[in-house]
Amino acid sequence: QVQLVESGGGLVQPGGSLRLSCAVSGIGISDEAMGWYRQAPGKQRELVAGMLSDGDTYYGDSVKGRFTISRDNAKNMVYLQMNSLKPADTAVYYCNSIPNSPWGQGTQVSVSS
Question: What is the secondary structure of 6-55 as a DSSP string?
Answer without folding.
Answer: EE--EEE-TT--EEEEEEEESS-GGGSEEEEEEE-TTS--EEEEEE-TTS
